[in-house]
Fold this protein.
Amino acid sequence: MISEILPFWSKYWHYILITVATYVYVMWKSGKMKSDLQDYDNEMEREIPSEEAEKCASNEEEPALPKDLQHIPYKYQRPSEAEMRKKANEFFEIANARRTLRFFSSDPVPKDVIREIIRAAGTAPSGAHTEPWIFVVISDPATKTQIREIVENEEEINYRKRMGKKWTIDLQPLKTNSMKPYLTTAPYLILVFKQTYGILPNGTRKIHYYNEMSVSIACGILISAIQYAGLVTLTSTPLNCGPALRLLLGRPNNEKLALLLPVGYPAEDATVPALERKPLSDILVEID
Ligand SMILES: Cc1cc2nc3c(=O)[nH]c(=O)nc-3n(C[C@H](O)[C@H](O)[C@H](O)COP(=O)(O)O)c2cc1C
């Protein structure tokens, strides 16, 4: 029997191998595609409101914005190409000078400047103009101390066990750790909350389409406005601190912490890691 199989195997082994390899590849590929599709579905699920969420809206037949919303002429003055080039370059220089600061001065900053910066952030586009953000500005020293305690306690656990070895190794060159003295040194802390849904005056929920993306854009404008005003900040997303900070600040359930930003002047002896940014050729694909 074996003597019959062996010549067959030795003659056709490459066909058998190709068949088995093709089978394994097809099975792997179909499983991967399924999981890719699942990821896509999950993504869509997060953004397209479910029927149940739709029912939360006060009146399904009425749009959230006024039905008879006026459409007005857009005021616009077209710049010359030379002006455009100058402005685009000026903005690049401003954006390029921005750095994440981890050493702050305690020098006071005028409150109206902070208000104006937040006004700028509030101009961000948002899904169906839902404006799903709220900015909590803290200058009260006692509240800053409480925030620092919450963040440092959680960060101590994050660094010790939640973040994992690779994450903490990747952070080593930036010299970050669980101690966050800037949370009490900086004159302001801005906590950006995203409203995952709105609450209408009659208590029913309003759907906030693409709230994550809308708030991220607002945060980008906020950070740029801070930089443009001549101040500095540190973009931070303190892991596992959201619920405690929300409760401390008396914010409602529909709000989730997106970013925590200390804002102020840099300390006189502040340093920043000498990071390089990707050149344009690495981040731009042009299809003409
Ligand atoms: C979403 C996000 C979360 C971040 N979280 C932290 C943080 O918790 N602590 C910190 O020191 N820096 C944090 N950073 C800052 C990054 O480390 C910093 O942006 C990066 O090293 C690039 O440096 P640059 O901002 O000076 O260009 C965060 C940045 C982003 C965009």
